[in-house]
Amino acid sequence: MRLFVGIPLPDFIIDELSRTSLRFQSPNDGLRWSAPESWHVTLQFLGSVQPDQHACITAALRDFHHAPVPIQLDELGFFDRAGVFFAGVRLSPALLSLQQQITAATAPCGFVPDTRPFHPHITLARSKGKAGARSLRALQSQIQTRAHRPPAFKLFLAREFVLYESLPTPSGSRYEVRDRFPLD
Questions:
Q1: How high is the pLDDT of residue 79?
Q2: Which residues pair with 181 in a beta bridge?
Q3: For 102-122, what is each residue's pLDDT tens digit?
Q4: Nearest to 16 by CA among 131, 130, 150
Q5: List of domains in the chain
Q6: 43 by DSSP, 3-state: which?
Q7: Per the confidence metrics, is the pTM higher than 0.70?
C-alpha cells in the first residue's frame, strides 16, 4: 500500500478553496482538478509500505505528542516542472516542528526524510499532457497579469493528523483514511 501523513482540512476551508478553485476552472481546460474531498496538507510521503512497516508507523504515531498547529493558507502558486496549481500554506515554526517530528518518528520504521525543503501546499489541479501544460501556463499568466486579489483564507487549528492510503484510479488518486492521530 502507498501511504502518506497529512493534515485534513475543515469544511469551512474546503468551502473557501472550492469557491477559489471554481473561479479558475473551465470545460476542457486540459487540467485534472483535484476533488475537494482529497484536499490535505502533506506532512510526509511514505510511499510503498510493507505490513510490518505499517504496524511500526501506527505504533510510532500513536506515541507521538504535539500541540495543535495553527494553519494559514497563503497565496496561489504553481510548481511548473511538476505541472501543479496549488494553494500555498504558510510555513510557521509550529508546522515545521510537526513535520520534522513526524519524519523523525517514522525514521525507525525505515523511512528516509526527504532532502528537499518542506513546502506545504494543497494541490488544486495537475496538468495532463501538452494541452494541460499550455492550460496551466495560461492559468498562471491569468493569475499573475490580471488584477488578481489573492484569496483571504481563514486560519484554522489542526487538531489531528491522518495516515492516508493513496489508491490510484483512472481519474487520479483517491485517498482513504487509515488512521487518525490527535494533536494534544
A1: 92
A2: 161
A3: 999 999 999 988 888 999 999
A4: 150
A5: 2-182 (3.90.1140.10)
A6: strand
A7: yes
